[in-house]
């Protein structure tokens, strides 16, 4: 995996850390709101990281991988919170 493909990892880690913090701190009624905020932060971080790379080759693929990975983490957390 090239260093450019590793640029998606910080976004996935942010979503995972955000979900873990929400699970441990947030009240059950407000978890959905906080999950939306985590996802919005992941989208912003995606564009920041990808723009800092200064490479247009593969931009869409890297940005898509970042956002879809974060969406999967947040969606899984949403499903788990729904059952709890």
Query: Share of helix among residues?
Result: over 70%
Structural class: mainly alpha
Distance between the termini: 37 Å
Number of strands: 0
Mean pLDDT reading:
91
Silhouette:
elongated
Taken together, the total number of domains comes to 1
* SSE run: HHH
Count of separate DSSP helical elements: 3
Described by strand count, sense and barrel closure, the largest sheet is: none
Poorly predicted ranges: none
What proportion strand? under 5%
User: For the CA atoms, what is the radius of gyration?
Assistant: 14 Å
Task: Provide tags for this entry.
84 residues, elongated, mainly alpha
Protein described:
The protein is 77% helix and 0% strand. It is built from 3 helices and no strands. The longest helix has 25 residues, at 59-83. Helix 2 packs antiparallel against helix 3. The protein has helices spanning 9-25, 31-53, 59-83.
Question: Quick summary of this structure?
Answer:
This protein is mostly helical and 84 residues long. 77% of the residues lie in helices and 0% in strands.
Write the layout of secondary structure elements.
Elements: H1 9-25, H2 31-53, H3 59-83
């Amino acid at each position: 995996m090239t260093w450019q493909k590793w640029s998606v990892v910080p976004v996935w880690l942010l979503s995972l850390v955000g979900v873990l913090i929400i699970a441990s701190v947030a009240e059950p009624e407000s978890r959905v709101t906080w999950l939306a905020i985590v996802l919005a932060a992941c989208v912003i971080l995606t564009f920041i990281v990808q723009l800092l790379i200064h490479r247009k080759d593969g931009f869409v693929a890297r940005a898509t991988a970042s956002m879809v990975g974060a969406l999967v983490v947040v969606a899984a957390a949403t499903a788990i919170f729904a059952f709890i």
